[in-house]
Automatic annotation (TrEMBL):
Pathway noted in the entry: Aminoacyl-tRNA biosynthesis; selenocysteinyl-tRNA(Sec) biosynthesis; L-seryl-tRNA(Sec) from L-serine and tRNA(Sec): step 1/1
Phylogenetic classification of the source organism: Bacteria, Pseudomonadati, Pseudomonadota, Betaproteobacteria, Nitrosomonadales
Domain Aminoacyl-transfer RNA synthetases class-II family profile: 170-409
Function of the molecule: Catalyzes the attachment of serine to tRNA(Ser). Is also able to aminoacylate tRNA(Sec) with serine, to form the misacylated tRNA L-seryl-tRNA(Sec), which will be further converted into selenocysteinyl-tRNA(Sec).
Protein name as it appears in the record: Serine--tRNA ligase
InterPro entries per the UniProt record, alphabetical: aa-tRNA-synt_IIb (IPR002314), aa-tRNA-synth_II (IPR006195), aa-tRNA-synth_II/BPL/LPL (IPR045864), Ser-tRNA-ligase_type_1 (IPR002317), Ser-tRNA-synth_1_N (IPR015866), SerRS_1_N_sf (IPR042103), SerRS_core (IPR033729), tRNA-bd_arm (IPR010978)
UniProt cross-references to PANTHER family, sorted A to Z: SERINE--TRNA LIGASE, SERYL-TRNA SYNTHETASE
RNA sequence: GGUGAGCUGGCCGAGUGGUCGAAGGCACUUCCCUGCUAAGGAAGCAUAUGGGCUUAAACCUGUAUCGAGGGUUCGAAUCCCUCGCUCACCGCCA
């Protein structure tokens, strides 16, 4: 959520910055709501003040044993007017909140301006795509004889589900293990195990709700709903909801390996083959909760933490700075890591690292006490370190051999019982 | 699922209808004293939001907030209802 004060004070500038990310801020509606709010709020609070003062007088009079009926008569008529005013105020404030909750974050000044993914800016490349002297297969064809089984996934659950068995299942686990061990042992993150189902408030906190309900899976629970997490960014970041963190505990660095559940509504027909786009996929997530002054340094650091995995796996990739039009709802700045997929002859997203600045923290009321002792909003960052399924795809495609086998990257061999190759 | 007890400021904890946004303690900030890895004294110290004022901060002031929502009342931390959560015991259970 944006700072409403900033909107009031500097509306035109913010509208322009939001336009850069293809968001049309309803400025007229906002101004009208604000004008109404001001009138109603003043009126309501005046009535409340009147009532409070009178009630206090009644209390004083009664404690002295005096007759309070005169004052009582005076406030008698207030009740209905006050109730109506309060109801109206609630309604306007709720409308303003809904409006605010649907406004995306402001892009940082360093974010390239652009309309869509074609205008993202490549920052650097690492590694050279391998030259193949045979016809490359995609991961689905490479993995099929080894236990990568889309038919069984479809039988059990439908499209966009994968069943893995044998050495593919083990490789998948090995990849996750390597990621988790690297982030905890080398990069200082604390390993977490989190719920996979969360309540509505949690998703509002990180910005998935109320705007993106259709992207989530949910299930009825009591009189309400629980939602399957679309990423453990949700659970890790919400650990600081309604907290005031001590300065000396910053930065907070958390990681978790969890499944992620996404309805992929609106992506029909895209990436239909293979396990690029699934309703359920595993991800090792990194979250940092930091002092505002440090958030951009943390962003660069986290990109490095994600890159370290790709480098350990010897997978060629590039780092891309997303343009204003391609960034996610809560991000002020995002880098994507794109891994080379030889079968697609292109780089594909495998990690996304974002600085949300105070956008999530404001919703979460996640704060720290600054040098003056005043609570101040934290900055939150999240990034994949990395998507496990897509990493499996990249390993299979980049390391395939002419005979159909797949060499196992050195970094994964300890997790595969010393095995160096997946054979048919 | 059943029964019982709880949920108060950064933390602990008092407060069962009226000068309560809330005693006391801890922590923190400033000052004083002391001169030593400590103790004592004084003051300040919840959050959000509106308005005044303002470059801003500070300050003044209104309102709301004592798990959440609703109700009773001129007035609710306090009474009533619903829900959530925590703890204990019982039942069931991977």
């Amino acid at each position: 959520m944006l700072d409403i004060q900033q909107l009031r004070n500097d509306l035109d500038a913010l509208v322009a910055r939001l336009a850069a990310r293809k968001f049309t801020f309803p400025a007229e509606e906002f101004k009208a709501l604000e004008a109404r709010r001001k009138t109603i709020q003043t009126n309501t609070e005046n009535l409340q003040a009147k009532r409070n003062a009178a009630s206090k007088q009644i209390g004083i009079a009664k404690s002295k044993g005096e007759d309070a009926s005169a004052i009582l008569a005076e406030v008698a008529g207030l009740g209905d007017a006050l109730k109506a005013a309060e109801a109206e105020l609630n309604e306007v404030q709720a409308s303003i909140l809904v409006l605010m909750q649907n406004v995306p974050n402001l892009p940082h000044d360093s974010v390239p301006v652009g309309l869509d993914e074609t205008q993202n800016v490549e920052v650097r490349r690492w590694g050279n795509p391998r030259q193949f002297d045979f016809a490359v297969k995609d991961h689905a064809d490479v993995g099929a004889p080894m236990g990568l089984d889309f038919d069984t996934g479809a039988k059990l659950s439908g499209a966009r589900f994968t069943f893995m068995k044998g050495q593919i299942a083990k490789l998948h686990r090995a990849i996750a293990q390597l990621m988790l061990d690297t982030q905890t042992e080398k990069h200082g993150y604390t390993e977490c195990y989190t719920p996979y189902m969360v309540n509505r408030e949690t998703l509002v906190g990180t910005g998935q709700l109320p705007k993106f309900e259709e992207d989530l899976f949910s299930t009825p629970h009591n009189d309400s709903k629980l939602y399957l997490i679309p990423t453990s960014e949700v659970t890790l970041t919400n650990t600081v909801r309604d907290e005031i963190v001590a300065l000396e505990n910053l930065p907070i660095k958390l990681t978790a390996h969890t499944p992620c559940f996404r309805s992929e509504a609106g992506s029909y027909g895209r990436d239909t083959k293979g396990m690029i786009r699934q309703h359920q996929f595993d991800k090792v997530e990194m979250v940092q909760i930091v002092h505002p002054e440090n958030s951009y340094a943390a962003l660069e650091e986290m990109v490095g933490h994600a890159e370290a995995i790709l480098q350990a796996l010897e997978l060629p990739y590039r780092v891309v700075s997303l343009c204003t039009g391609d960034m996610g709802f809560g991000a002020a700045k995002t880098y994507d890591l794109e891994v080379w997929l030889p079968a697609q002859n292109t780089y594909r997203e495998i990690s996304s690292v974002s600085n949300c600045e105070a956008f999530q923290a404001r919703r979460l009321q996640a704060r720290f006490r600054n040098a003056n002792g005043k609570p101040e909003l934290l900055h939150t960052l999240n990034g994949s370190g990395l998507a496990v399924g897509r990493t499996l795809v990249a390993v299979l495609e980049n390391n395939q051999q002419a005979d159909g086998s797949v060499t196992i990257p050195k970094a994964l061999q300890p997790y595969m019982g010393g095995k160096t190759v997946l054979s048919l």
